[in-house]
Amino acid sequence: MAMMAVSEALARLLADAGPLDAETVPLSQARSRVLADDVIARRTQPPFAVSAMDGYAVRAADTGDPTRPLTVIGEVAAGQVFDTPVEAGQVVRIFTGAPVPQGADAILIQEDAEPAGEGTIRAGEAVARGHHVRPAGLDFSEGDRLIEGGTRLDGGHLSLAAAGNHAELDVRRRPRVGVLATGDELVQPGMSPGPGQIVASNGYGVAAILEDAGAEPFDLGIACDRRADLDIKLDAALAAECDVLITLGGASVGDHDLVRPTFVARGMELAFHKIAMRPGKPMMFGRLGAMRVLGLPGNPVSSLVCTHLFAVPLIEELAGRPPSQRRTTARLGAPLGANGPREHYMRGALTREDDGTLVVTAFDNQDSSIIRLYAAADALIVRPPGADALDAGSRVEIVILREPR
Ligand SMILES: Nc1nc2c(c(=O)[nH]1)N[C@H]1C(S)=C(S)[C@@H](COP(=O)(O)OP(=O)(O)OC[C@H]3O[C@@H](n4cnc5c(N)ncnc54)[C@H](O)[C@@H]3O)O[C@H]1N2
Ligand code: MOO
């Protein structure tokens, strides 16, 4: 199969991807989830006029006369109701959050009330009608649309939904993503690798990046380079009802690269294998029933770059999130050589000059095995296939991985 352009591969990957179905979750589990439908207020907030201050519920017309004593006829705190109407010359002691009694139309804060003998006060300062009164519906009214479907829920949204009397919300299901490392050479971190073995590292970064994008990662462990073992792991991914299976390694052309032939033998429809990209050439995508299978190359940087450029957009589509990838341009801090036939995503450091100009400098070593330089990278410089050499100061397209320091 000929190598496919990056843009074409991305288009195929996303062609029929859309938000997964909805599920109902309690508010306590709704943070960062994507709302499936509008949230409509089930009540009015506040449901009645309430005092915004501690003081006295008064009739505004009674205030402003320092000689006039006003009779305190009772008291009302939040959670209580004072149901005797307030007549001229009367006030009610009131506390923040309490319903304003009928007949009263303003709040005199207690600092402005002068004691005037047993059970009376004076209101020398005039207060306007409505002063320190929060009218019913100040925040929202029953039937109002509080939050639009498709919103990613943060703390403010959750308080708003709760105030609207929703105990649970309909949100998009998070894509369940099985992450499977492959290779006889791999052992889990913390173990003692035997002769010829290394520590499996790719899955940790891939799972973390995808969780940030809205996925629920599911660790399928490590498969040996044997078809029978890959079969078992594939069964585990299917049994776990993974929406997406991500394999790491075993994607190339060597005798031990068995992911594609094993999965094709199991009925996977292959959409593409091999893209004109560096790193990431042997990437593969297919479908096995409802499950999407994304086979990433084993080189650590290849796995991580492909995760950013392909797996993240896929997960965001399935999760109902808007694309998060930030592409812009920057000036080169150092010259770059001509590019080969594959679109090259070069790791680099990003800085911002005093005038706001972004400057990106590619690391000298772009080998796809060097995890340290990936972890240090702030941006990927996008070099189109066959691009000419560039001088320092030239403008290049970049994908921002983290904001410049
Ligand atoms: N004859 C050819 N050989 C290779 C080609 C080619 O076109 N012709 N392509 C090269 C490119 S480009 C890449 S990328 C790699 C990818 O190969 P695989 O996907 O089959 O990856 P592996 O061989 O399994 O592993 C490559 C490398 O990465 C290490 N690895 C694998 N998994 C992990 C993991 N989970 N954590 C950490 N490191 C991992 C593995 O030990 C290898 O060193 O193929 C080239 N070869
Ligand atoms: O494409 Mo490979 O991912 O260059 O190292």
From TrEMBL:
This is Molybdopterin molybdenumtransferase. Belongs to the MoeA family. The keyword Disulfide bond does not apply. Its cofactor is Mg(2+). Coiled coil: none annotated. The keyword Ion transport does not apply. It catalyses: adenylyl-molybdopterin + molybdate = Mo-molybdopterin + AMP + H(+). Residues 178-317 form the MoaB/Mog domain. Keywords: Magnesium, Metal-binding, Molybdenum, Molybdenum cofactor biosynthesis, Transferase. It comes from Roseitalea porphyridii. GO terms for molecular function: metal ion binding; molybdopterin molybdotransferase activity. Signal peptide: none annotated. Pathway: Cofactor biosynthesis; molybdopterin biosynthesis. Catalyzes the insertion of molybdate into adenylated molybdopterin with the concomitant release of AMP.
